[in-house]
Amino acid sequence: YTCDLIRNFSIIAHIDHGKSTLADRLLELTGTIQKKQVGRNEQVLDKLKVERERGITVKAQTASMIHKFSGKEYLLNLIDTPGHVDFSWEVSRSLAACQGALLLVDASQGVQAQSISVFHIAQERGLKIIPVLNKIDLPAAQPERIAAQMQSTFGIDPTEIIPISAKTGQGVEAILEAIIQRIPPPSGLENAPLKAFLFDSFYDRYRGVISLVNVQAGTIRKGDKILSCHTRKRYEVQDVGVMYPEEVPVDCLRPGQVGYVSCNMKESSEAHIGDTLFRIGHPVEPMPGFKPAKAMVYAGVFPVDSNDFPKLEESIKRLTLTDRSVTMQRESSSALGQGCRLGFLGTLHMDVFRQRLEDEYDANVIITAPTVPYKVIYKDKEVYISNPTEFPDVTDTTSKVKEIHEPVVRASIIVPEEGFGDMMDLCYSHRAEGLEHRYLDAGSGSTSSRIILTCIIPLSEIVTDFFDQLKSRSSGFASFDYEDAGYKKSDLAKMTFLLNAKPVDALALIVHRSAQDTIGRAWVKKLHKVIPRQLFEVPIQAAIGRKIIARETLSALRADVTAGLYGGHYERKMKHLENQKESKKRMKRMGSVDLPQEAFFDILRK
Ligand code: GTP
């Protein structure tokens, strides 16, 4: 296929607006996959089990299809993008390989927070956008109203909008035509030196890392000796092919084409997303580099049974081969033993990873409370700290800390008018600043207007329960998205928890000073509930620096040491009680609180 017969496109949409369903229809219509029996709802592109269970796309998948149009055969490359706030980085990298995008909007729900963010990413990349209204088969669909919304929000000409039902297939044919007619073909020179843009990779147990590339110039074939601009490593190409929708080997990949390259890469870190591959001896100007995936949420992961650490580490390593956006480091805790500290793109990413760990490797794990990377500014240096145990004691006047900065994000929330007050409360209770709002459209009859609310909010405030609260307070009607907004000075401190006067490192938290009392009290209450009573009294305390800010006392469990003694042996009874008192003292002195792992499990799982 020459360039003029190739189209590279993506489907971008808010979560649940029907991206995977539409992708399936397109693959069926072009005969790339067999039509499934009615009633089966298993999407081809959503491969991972957790994706199917949660119904969200986690990992981008790419597929090619062939479509005949006015006597010519076209090669259409669909580059699938994941649909969640945590993965917006993956969206932007997949879009770099496309010239156009289908912007899919649910005709019953209308424009949502992520419709807007993905639209902006696509627009910034200069992609041709084809607006599509999906789910027109639903009784609740309001195609005219939503079309007007798309016009006012995106400046889209309503006559360009293609109404479809990805479920029934109605209107989907028109999309194939629009892709061919409206999206420009990729440009690329056949007789130029090879320049291949690496936009994704996956791991294959037998062949190692497989890269997905978009050939920008030249051709790539088996046996080629290539070099990576980024790592300067050399490889020999073992195999090239297209995703149709599974890997199908081909002779060579030409300019404009999208396909896979297998070249004996052992580690997924070698396949640097945004890298440019070229032929040895024919260097090219690399494509403008990409921001590497930035871990924004960190948590410690420990095995429930500490003997399982080698197995856990092995499992994590294997999973990071398939999900390269997870960063990993070893960590040890006096309470939880040996573990790993992992960095994720967001909390959903973290949940997905844990579930995969449990599903695929049958490993029971404890995950500590999520934290974000804080910037600690000293007189002469800046340090990023994402592990609370390493956080300095800011109440210590001898510490050289000048300022603490925390990551903040620009959040956008779209909510029906009646839920607006609740959303404002939610934002303010999470330290939001600079709240602004505007109407997205005017209400009509039975439907209310929708408002878009934007604010700056600390990332640490949204990594815990923000999303759940947003959904429950708005009965699921609010949608939410955020983007990085840099760092901001903040009044933060490390909160430690002491059991029997001994700090438990795995429980340390970074808190905003304004919320320290509330948080301290809530946590000691939680601990009080889950820690089993001991033979001695155990104070449970929350502290900031040396100052105790909350306390609960776990009363002693009185073992009845006299139970086996009958009759009136008063002296013997007394002696036993004396002994018991002595040993109680000793245990307390040693401070050995028996803390079962399940207790951690309970508190850290919320
Ligand atoms: P993510 O993968 O999580 O981003 O979601 P998605 O955008 O891929 O959505 P998906 O295709 O999984 O569809 C979400 C839900 O909407 C599923 O239950 C689909 O069956 C349903 N759905 C998709 N298209 C249509 C449609 O045209 N009409 C109706 N009635 N339902 C649809």
UniProtKB/TrEMBL annotation:
This is GTP-binding protein lepa. It comes from Pluteus cervinus.
